[in-house]
Amino acid sequence: MHLRTALQVAAAVLTLLAAGCSSEGGNGGTPSTSPAATGSAEATVTPSGETPSAPPPDPDPAPSFSQDGTTRILRYGDVEVKATPKENGILTAVTVHNDTDESANFDIVVSIGNDIDWVATSTFRVYGVPAHGSRSEAESVGGTHLGPIPQQPKIYIDRISTY
């Protein structure tokens, strides 16, 4: 075999080995793409790894508390919870604002307490909230069986589920 032919065979073997390594190692076993395809793919990916057409993720909303007379109010994103002390429990009203383009159902788990030893939890199921509309549900939560009714109730949203 001539030296030139041996060098060509060695170059071909190295090329095949390099191609085999790039298609099986380090990238999850997916075949490597051509430099042109890689260049165009990189152009559509932002440094954070998202495509430009995907909206940025919404940050968690910040809770906002206020008071109207004896009623404590918690606003968290599209949910508002009002807690009013009554003689036999805490009258709790949950209002959901649906900012989507379709009707939605919400399950909201709310706890009302006094930050010490009185706590009552209830699940509010708000069905058929229209697109870009709102709907409310209200009920009495807790009672004197838990102890004296808190006159400055603390409001907690434990979970929000949308379906």
3D architecture notes:
With 163 residues, the chain is an alpha+beta fold. 19% of the residues lie in helices and 40% in strands. The chain is built from 2 helices and 8 strands. The strands form 2 sheets. Strands 1-2-3-4-7 form a 5-stranded antiparallel β-sheet, with no helix packed on it. It has a 3-stranded antiparallel β-sheet with strand order 6-5-8, with no helix packed on it. Strand 1 and strand 2 (71-76) form a beta hairpin. The longest helix is centred in the N-terminal third of the chain and has 22 residues, at 3-24. The N and C termini lie far apart (73 Å). The model is unreliable at 1-7 and 13-46 (pLDDT under 50).
What is the strand and helix layout of this fold?
Blueprint: H1 3-24, H2 35-43, E1 64-68, E2 71-76, E3 79-86, E4 89-97, E5 104-113, E6 119-129, E7 134-141, E8 154-162
Antiparallel strand pairs: 1-2, 2-3, 3-4, 4-7, 5-6, 5-8
Briefly, what is this?
The chain is 19% helix and 40% strand. It is α+β, with helices and mostly antiparallel strands and 163 residues long. Strands 1-2-3-4-7 form a 5-stranded antiparallel beta sheet, with no helix packed on it.
Structural class: alpha+beta
List low-confidence stretches.
1-7, 13-46
Terminal CA distance? 73 Å
Strand content: 35-45%
Give the strand line-up of the largest sheet: 1-2-3-4-7
Q: Specify Rg, calculated over alpha carbons.
A: 30 Å
Helix content: 10-25%
Order of helices and strands: HHEEEEEEEE
Enumerate how many helices there are, as a single number.
2
Largest sheet: 5 strands, antiparallel
The dominant shape is: elongated
Record field, number of beta strands: 8
Mean pLDDT: 78
